[in-house]
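hey m, so remember when u said the tokens were messed up on ur end? i reran from scratch. heres the input so u can diff it against urs
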Amino acid sequence: MELGGATGDLVGNLPFAVYLLIPLALALALVTAIALGPLGDPEPPGRRAGGVSRALRRRQDGPGGFRT
């Protein structure tokens, strides 16, 4: 008496496209994990001093950055 499917048949009767989709799905999962994980965090910008001073200077310079 035989129980279950064919003995030794690990992949079954799957179409060839399934074998192409498996690596594609794994690659997509890897890219998603990298993008959403710690490697996907943007680098913090370097500390920039004088933010208020720069803004006031730009405002005083007027349009185009030239002093009037």
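this time it looks ok to me. The CA atoms of residues 46 and 62 lie 27 Å apart. if urs says something different then somethings off w ur setup not the seq
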